[in-house]
Design goal:
Elements (H helix, E strand, L loop, with lengths): L3 H18 L3 E7 L15 E6 L4 H16 L6 E4 H6 L5 H9 L1 E6 L13 H23 L3 H25 L8 H12 L4 H10 L9 H20 L7
Parallel strand pairs: 2-3
Antiparallel strand pairs: 1-2, 1-4
Helix pairs in contact: 5-6, 5-9, 6-7, 6-8, 6-9
Length: 243
């Protein structure tokens, strides 16, 4: 459950978005952690999707004019979508659309995501692309921040949820539930693959405040990197689940 301050911010955002886009607004959706159980007040962003019938340059200018104000209320830069984009993206963004469909809250207009038929055929390939891309990015970021413990901690806490989201979608591909909570999704993937990811679990606990940092941060990163590489190998060997 969101705290009263966050709910007030969401109400102000909803009214502001309605004022900005008027009759052009089809839907305003809150998705991600704020629509589930992993939201951390004061740390997590409010992720929103704004759906219009058609998007014009004028709409982009309207968004630009209000974005700084919305950021102050906790909103991340929103997704600006239209119906045509949503329909065409079902085969190339199955992972994001699955997650949005499974965990969202309608703030205004029509719930355009609830009944969207999502093409799952490319989900494994997207998951592998995302995992490999994030692994490359993780290595590059370590090269930049490795000597700075505070920045390394932030990198670990920010990136772990991305890999757990990949796990959640792969569990869905295998016919699993695809749990909303990060820790539940991790546990399900461990059961599905009979593989343990203790460092990722530790990071989730630290992220949610149920555990303090323990051990050398550089050593934690090393163990984390090994788990990410293991995940990539598991996704690469998961072709049979996508057929």
């Amino acid at each position: 459950m969101l705290d009263a301050k966050t709910e007030k911010a969401i109400a102000r955002l909803t009214e502001s978005v309605r004022q900005v886009f008027g009759n052009d607004l089809v839907s305003l959706l809150l998705y991600g952690s704020a629509a589930g159980e992993d939201f951390i007040a004061g740390r997590s962003d409010l992720n929103c999707a704004i759906v219009l019938e058609h998007i014009t340059h004028a709409h982009l200018k309207q968004l630009h004019a209000r974005l700084a104000e919305w950021h102050k209320l906790g909103m991340a830069t929103p997704l600006l979508l239209d119906r045509t984009f949503l329909d065409g993206a079902r085969d190339v963004f199955p992972m994001e659309l699955h997650d949005m469909q499974a965990q969202h809250r309608l703030l205004a207009g029509e719930d355009v995501i609830a009944g969207l038929e999502i093409d799952r055929r490319n989900l494994r390939y997207q998951a592998e692309h995302e995992a490999r891309s994030k692994l490359l990015r993780l290595r590059a970021l370590y090269a930049e921040v490795g000597a700075d413990s505070a920045r390394l901690q932030a990198l670990l806490l920010d990136s772990v949820k991305t890999f757990v989201i990949l796990m959640r979608n792969l569990s869905r591909l295998r016919g699993g539930v695809g749990h909303r909570r990060y820790e539940d999704a991790l546990a399900q993937f461990e059961r599905d693959t009979t593989t343990s990811f203790p460092t990722m679990r530790q990071l989730l606990h630290v992220r949610h405040g149920s555990e303090e940092w323990r051990g050398d941060i550089d050593g934690i990163f090393s163990a984390y990197l090994e788990e990410v590489e293991r995940l990539v190998d598991l996704i690469d060997g998961n072709e049979e689940a996508s057929t």
